[in-house]
Recover the amino acids of this structure.
């Protein structure tokens, strides 16, 4: 049986990367989908692990050759999901986790209605403001831009299948693992068990 | 927010009671719905805990006065779910588990589409045969009757939301707990978190 495609999005400041790392660490059947991006590599990042770092021409070629399941522009850079490795993992029965922004997530859902969309929330919107301002290293104008984007993202959250509130990292991690387990228990996934000669 | 109504069914010989006990032991927010029945009390059973044991006249009155969410006849006896205690628990935000047979479960789903229906399966149908014959204390004709009923129940399983395979009690228990967690993460259950002034 083919694996499940799990898509996680959440606004900047919601603590998503910590939760996603926790999920990946606790689920060895889950494969992380590495995105391609045109943004420059940051210190500590590894090509092919955090992202596939490519130049604009290469990214445009990937778009043209339809090698991306989805792509979007964010703060002047392209981000996209290479489709071939993802299909390969799913066909092998592995579940695949995509950590992508909202536009991309909704495109994935449109193209693959069986994808499971999880939106990560802060306990309250005020927490996002607090976290973004609290970082202290971001220009106020940029914080405002991120807050505006977070507000827009919240308006899209009702299109997701699940909402996970990050009021506690362990709880958020276990909720996402529970969602993955439950999705694999859905009747449509297990009809083969109902054959009497199974 | 009101609690979730979880309905579990499964054919005789699937090991459902052990799994249900495991679920109840591990989830203290979950309340077990005690059914009313006209069948005689068995040694070790407690009135009001295993069942509410009532006579036929009382059961008929409960039907007439619409005090039952569902009821069904099984091997000559009536079984039904008293609605008032269930509504009370749900209103208090408690989740309620119903362990009822297939006809009743489908009636609950028809009346309450937000109920979550879980069907418990054996790893294979041959396991049910093995377990029912293996008990050794049941007349072959009765075993055949139960097997026929199990076959019919399997035909109804696609109407359930989830299928849980009891190939391992701990795994089955944790799958049911995961389903409960995931159901509470569904977007419709958590829309209040999306209000900016939340």
């Amino acid at each position: 049986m083919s694996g499940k495609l799990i898509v996680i999005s959440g606004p900047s400041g919601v603590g998503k990367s910590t939760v996603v790392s926790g999920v990946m660490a606790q689920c060895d059947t889950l494969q992380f989908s590495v995105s391609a991006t045109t943004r420059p590599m940051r210190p500590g990042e590894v090509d092919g692990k955090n992202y596939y770092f490519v130049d604009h021409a290469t990214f445009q070629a990937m778009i043209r050759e339809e090698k991306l399941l989805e792509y979007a522009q964010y703060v002047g850079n392209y981000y996209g999901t290479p489709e071939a490795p993802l299909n390969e993992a799913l066909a092998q029965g592995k579940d695949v986790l995509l950590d992508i922004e909202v536009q991309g997530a909704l495109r994935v859902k449109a193209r693959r209605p069986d994808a499971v969309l999880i939106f990560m929330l802060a306990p309250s919107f005020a927490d996002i403001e607090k976290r973004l301002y609290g970082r202290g290293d971001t220009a106020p104008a940029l914080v405002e831009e991120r807050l505006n984007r977070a507000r827009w993202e919240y308006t899209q959250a009702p299109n997701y299948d699940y909402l996970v509130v990050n009021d506690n990292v362990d709880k958020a991690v276990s909720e996402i693992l529970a969602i993955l387990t439950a999705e694999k228990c859905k009747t449509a996934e297990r009809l083969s068990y109902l054959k009497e000669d199974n």
